[in-house]
Amino acid sequence: MSIQKQKIAIVTLGCSKNTVDSEVLMNQIEANRLSLVDDPADADTLIINTCGFIDAAKEESVNTIVEAVEMKKNGAISTLFVAGCLSERYREDLEKELPEVDRFFGVTDFQRIIETLGGSYKYELLGERHLSSPSHSAYVKISEGCDRPCSFCSIPLMRGGHVSKPIEEVVHEGKFLRALGTKELVLIAQDTTYYGLDLYDERRLAPLMGELSDIDGIEWIRLMYAYPSRFPLDVLDVMRERENICNYIDIPIQHADDAVLKSMRRGITRRATEELIDQIRSRVPSCAIRSTLIVGYPNESDAAFQALYDFVAEQQFDRLGVFLYSQEENTTADILGDPVPRDVKEQRRDAIMELQSGISQRRNEALVGSSMRVLADRIEGEHLVARSEFDAPEVDNEVLLPLDDFTDTPRPGDFYDVEVTGATEYDLMARIRR
Predict the structure, then answer these.
(1) d(CA 167, CA 163)
(2) CB atoms within 10 A of CB 60
């Protein structure tokens, strides 16, 4: 059987940026009239799009490759390709350790993958994708790579420096997604607030959001991965002025102790971080702020952790995630070692998440009796699972509506006006407003 006639499946690991990359590749596969299948068990050729960001992600990627190698040995698949961040960063080591893999590709090797499959890369499909998730919500990657010097981060090693997509290309992609039925655009990048500086000599995130807001039929635009240092405050103006831009910002703060922030090379202090949060809350009072933190960084003393804990208690974030520090080779923090024991890291994470659980519970309980507009994501058991504008897909709270509350079968992708009837730490219960 020639490779052109084989069935091709893609397994995507890691973050939403990887999801977008796989969707671009899927679209190219289909444009070349190659056979794309969803289930690896139905495939002859398997492509694994890997993640190489932290230890847990690398371990998952390696385990997935090993499982695929066994599939190949057993004859379940005939060809195995590995692409993405892990392959970009560790290609020579992987080639030695896993000779059963037919080819390794980097993070931007779409053309080489398509040509290896026997096709030709279609440049005219720029900005077009095969959506792998329900079409009503889609990620839009506005730039690639990162110029930030964060000491703990390996992203620049794998994806290079920051490269913004021109505004017209991002808007074209937004219109393409809308034609597929997309109602929510989730803006992503390694650093969304750096957007435009390389192309236009100034940050152009706010103008980009304004142009996306003008696309007819786009009802929600959501901002993720907004770096706090030198945050472009005009983003808050466009958020306040445009009804279809969600009052929501994901802003990874990582820490609040000045000594840790300095070693992390974050380019910001605790005081400046607090001033930025104050600016967000004063300019957009209803804005939900999501953040992520790292515990167990090499110079995080007990006192530094307590400063972080107190900061979370003071700021009362709407949404919060906490990661354990992962020592990454060839980063500037690598030479510091990994002196904080794992069990201490886990205790610190658990302490902050317990604190946040109480914050989230109180915030959710305060919403009981209020009305809100929600976007339906899926039907699960006896409930329609939806989200408010204050919740990003996959990582935030959900709103549960009983199916018996509907006269007709509800549809994912539809908006509903609901009244909140109950609350848990991370979910709301609601009913349709009559």
Answers:
(1) 12
(2) 15
Beta bridge partners of 324: 295
Q: How far apart are the first and last CA of the chain?
A: 59
Q: What span, in angstroms and rounded, lies between the C-alpha atoms of 133 and 125?
A: 20
- In the structure encoding, which two tokens stand for residue 385, read together? 């699972």
List the structure tokens of 402.
Answer: 């009983």
pLDDT value of position 233: 96
pLDDT (mean) for 164-177: 96
Instruction: Answer whether 169's CB lies under 8 Å from 125's CB.
Output: no
Task: Give the pLDDT band of residue 107 (cuts 50, 70, 90).
Answer: confident
Helices of type H across 49-140: 55-73, 85-97, 110-116
CA distance 83 to 65: 11
Burial track 209-243 (b if 16+ CB lie within 10 A, e otherwise)? bbebbebeebbbbbbbbbbbbebbeebbebbeeee
Helices (H), 284-320: 302-315
- Reported as a pLDDT band with limits 50, 70 and 90, residue 391 is very high
CA distance 69 to 39: 16
Local confidence band at 110 (pLDDT 50, 70, 90 cut-offs): confident
Question: Which tops the pLDDT comparison, 424 or 129?
Answer: 424
Angle between helices 270-283 and 302-315 (to 10 degrees): 10
Q: Is 356:315 a contact under the CB 8 Å cutoff?
A: no
Cα dist from 247 to 220, 224, 250, 285, 321, whole Å: 10, 12, 10, 9, 19
Residue 377 CA to residue 397 CA, distance in Å, equals: 12
DSSP-derived 3-state class of residue 21: helix
Quick one: average pLDDT of 386-406? 93
Chain Cα centroid distance, residue 1: 38
Give the mean model confidence (pLDDT) for residues 207-233.
96
| pTM higher than the cut 0.85 | yes
State the burial class of residue 407 (Cβ atoms within 10 Å of its Cβ: 0-12, 13-18, 19+): exposed
Separation CA 163–CA 161 (nearest Å): 6
Q: Is the CB of residue 385 less than 8 Å from the CB of residue 377? A: yes
pLDDT in tens, 317-328: 999 999 999 999
Closest CA to 317 of 249, 369, 236, 266: 249
